[in-house]
Specification:
heterodimer; A: 183 residues; 5 helices; rod-shaped; B: 304 residues; alpha+beta; 7 helices; 27% strand
Chain lengths: 183, 304
C-alpha cells in the first residue's frame, strides 16, 4: 500500500474519532440541559405548592383579621415558562408574604392556636423543604453544566453550540429590616 | 437472679462445652474407626465422624449455654433496655426476619442468614426495631457425593436497625459508606424505578459516601446539608462501616462491626462493671442515631 493511501486512511480515522467524540460531547451537553429543564420543572411544582399553601394561610389570617382593613400582601404572579430570575422574584415575594402572615398571627392568639393554622404552618415547612431540595437539585445540575462548558475540550463544542452559563436559583437572603404592613 | 447464680450457670455451661468437645472427639474417633472397619472410604468416614462429633458436642453444651445466655441477657441486657426505652419487647433468640432485610435490596443476602437479640421499643416517641445480624456465603463442592465446604465468606456481621422516619418520601434511597462491603443496589428492570448515582453538593460527603436513589429530588429532600453533616458525625462515633437505606418511610441503618452484640463468652468470668459498660455503649448507639438524626422531630411527618 502506498504511503499516500496509508496517510489518507490515518487521516480519515482521526477525523472519524474527532467526529464521534464531538457527537458524544454534544450529547452530554444536551443531556445536561434536559436535566436542568427537569429540575426547573421541579422548582415550578414546588413553587406552586408553596403558593397554594400560602394562599390558604392568607385566607385563614384574613378570616381572623376581618375587622381590620385588608392587609397589603405583595401580589405573587406565577405562570408557566418563567425565567429563573422571575422565579427567584416570585419566591422572594412569597417569603415576604409569609413573614407578614406570621407577624399578623402574633397579634391574634386564637389564630395562632387554631389547629387549621398549625397544620398550614407544618405544611409550609414541608413545602419549603421540598423547594430547597428542588433548588439544590437544580443548582447541582447547573453547576455541572457550567463546569462542562468551560472545561477543555468540551468547551470547544459548547462554543460551537453558543452555550452560555445558566443562572442559579438563589436561596432567600435573611432580611434584617422589619417588613412594613399596611392596614 | 444475682451475679453469683449467673456465674454458676456460666461455669456449668463452660464445663459442659469442654466435656462436649472431649466426648465428641472420642465418639468421632471411635465412629471413624468403625466405619473404616466396615469398608467406607476415608473421606466419607471423616465426614460422618466429624458431623457426629459436632452434633454430640452441641447437644451436650447447648442446653446449659442457653440457660446461661437467657439469665445473662435478662439481668444485664433487658434491664438496660427497660431503663432507656419505652414499650420494650425483647427476644434474645429471634431477630429481624431475613425477608425484611432482603426487601431493601440493599445487601447481598448470601446463603446463610442468622439474627438474634430482637428488640422493638420506642425512644423519644420514635419507634424502632433492631437485631444482630449475620450473613454468610457458603459454597460447597461434592466429593464422592458428600458436600464439602470450600468457602465460608462473611458478608455482614453487625447490627441492623429500622426506625420510623419523620419525613414522607416515595423513592428508595441508599447511602453507603465506602468500603461497606457487599452492599449492592439491585438493578430493577422497570426503567422508571432504576437507581441512579447521585452526587451531593458536599464534596467531603461524596468522598466518604455513595448515594443511590430512585429519585434525585427525594435524595436531596432527605439528605439536607444538616442531615449529611450528622451522618458524617455518626461515622466517627460508631464502630464499623455504615449503610443507610430510606425505604417505605422507614430508615434502615446497618453497621458492619464484626461483632455479635449483647453476648458474653461462657469462658470469660463476668466482670459486672465491664458488662454494664459494654451493654450501655451498645444501647447508646440506638439513642445516638435518633438524637443525631433528629428522628424525633415530627415537623414533616404529615403529608402536605
Amino acid at each position: 500500500m502506498s504511503p499516500l493511501i496509508i496517510a489518507l486512511i490515518v487521516a480519515v480515522v482521526l477525523v472519524a474519532i474527532v467526529i464521534v467524540w464531538a457527537i458524544g460531547a454534544s450529547n452530554k451537553l444536551n443531556k445536561s440541559i434536559v436535566k436542568i429543564d427537569e429540575a426547573s420543572s421541579d422548582i415550578d411544582v414546588a413553587l406552586t405548592k408553596r403558593y397554594d399553601v400560602l394562599v390558604k394561610m392568607i385566607e385563614t389570617v384574613k378570616g381572623y383579621a376581618k375587622h381590620e382593613k385588608e392587609t397589603l400582601f405583595e401580589v405573587v404572579k406565577l405562570r408557566s415558562n418563567m425565567t429563573m430570575e422571575e422565579k427567584n422574584e416570585a419566591n422572594r415575594q412569597m417569603s415576604e408574604n409569609l413573614k407578614k402572615v406570621n407577624i399578623l398571627a402574633e397579634s391574634y392568639p386564637d389564630l395562632k392556636a387554631s389547629e387549621n393554622f398549625k397544620t398550614l404552618q407544618k405544611s409550609i415547612l414541608d413545602v419549603e423543604e421540598h423547594l430547597q431540595a428542588s433548588r439544590r437539585v437544580y443548582n447541582a445540575n447547573v453547576s455541572y453544566f457550567n463546569q462542562l462548558i468551560v472545561t477543555f475540550p468540551i468547551s470547544i463544542v459548547a462554543g460551537m453550540k453558543h452555550l452560555v452559563k445558566k443562572d442559579f436559583f438563589v436561596a432567600e437572603e435573611a432580611k434584617r429590616e422589619d417588613v412594613k404592613i399596611e392596614f | 437472679m444475682n451475679i453469683e447464680e449467673i456465674e454458676q450457670l456460666r461455669k456449668k455451661a463452660a464445663l459442659m462445652t469442654i466435656l462436649g468437645v472431649i466426648i465428641a472427639i472420642l465418639v468421632g474417633a471411635g465412629l471413624f474407626l468403625l466405619v473404616i472397619g466396615i469398608g467406607m472410604d476415608l473421606i466419607q468416614a471423616s465426614g460422618v465422624s466429624i458431623i457426629a462429633g459436632i452434633v454430640i458436642a452441641w447437644l451436650i453444651s447447648h442446653i446449659h449455654k442457653k440457660k446461661f445466655t437467657e439469665a445473662f441477657k435478662e439481668k444485664y441486657v433487658l434491664s438496660e433496655f427497660n431503663k432507656r426505652f419505652e414499650n420494650v419487647k425483647y427476644n434474645a433468640d429471634t431477630g429481624i426476619p431475613g425477608e425484611v432485610i432482603a426487601e431493601t435490596r440493599m445487601i447481598n443476602m448470601g446463603t446463610d442468614f442468622e439474627a438474634n437479640d430482637f428488640l422493638a421499643a420506642e425512644y423519644k416517641g420514635v419507634k424502632f426495631v433492631q437485631s444482630d445480624v449475620q450473613i454468610k456465603e457458603k459454597s460447597y463442592i461434592e466429593i464422592n457425593d458428600i458436600p464439602v465446604r470450600v468457602r465460608n465468606r462473611k458478608i455482614f456481621q453487625g447490627r441492623w436497625l429500622i426506625f420510623d422516619f419523620n419525613k414522607s418520601f416515595k423513592a428508595d434511597i441508599q447511602v453507603r459508606q465506602k468500603r461497606f462491603a457487599n452492599a449492592r443496589v439491585e438493578k430493577i428492570k422497570d426503567a422508571n424505578a432504576s437507581f441512579k448515582k447521585v452526587e451531593m453538593e458536599n464534596m467531603e460527603f461524596n468522598e466518604e459516601f455513595k448515594v443511590f436513589a430512585q429519585s434525585e429530588h427525594d435524595a436531596f429532600y432527605i439528605l439536607t446539608p444538616r442531615m449529611m453533616e450528622r451522618i458524617q458525625k455518626l461515622t466517627r462515633d460508631v464502630d464499623g462501616k455504615l449503610l443507610f437505606c430510606f425505604i417505605d418511610n422507614k430508615l434502615h441503618i446497618a453497621f458492619n462491626n464484626n461483632k455479635d452484640s449483647f453476648e458474653h463468652s461462657v469462658f470469660k468470668k463476668i466482670n459486672e462493671q465491664k458488662v454494664e459498660d459494654e451493654v450501655f455503649r451498645d444501647t447508646t448507639v440506638i439513642m445516638n442515631f435518633i438524637d443525631e438524626l433528629n428522628l424525633d422531630n415530627d415537623l414533616f411527618r404529615k403529608e402536605v
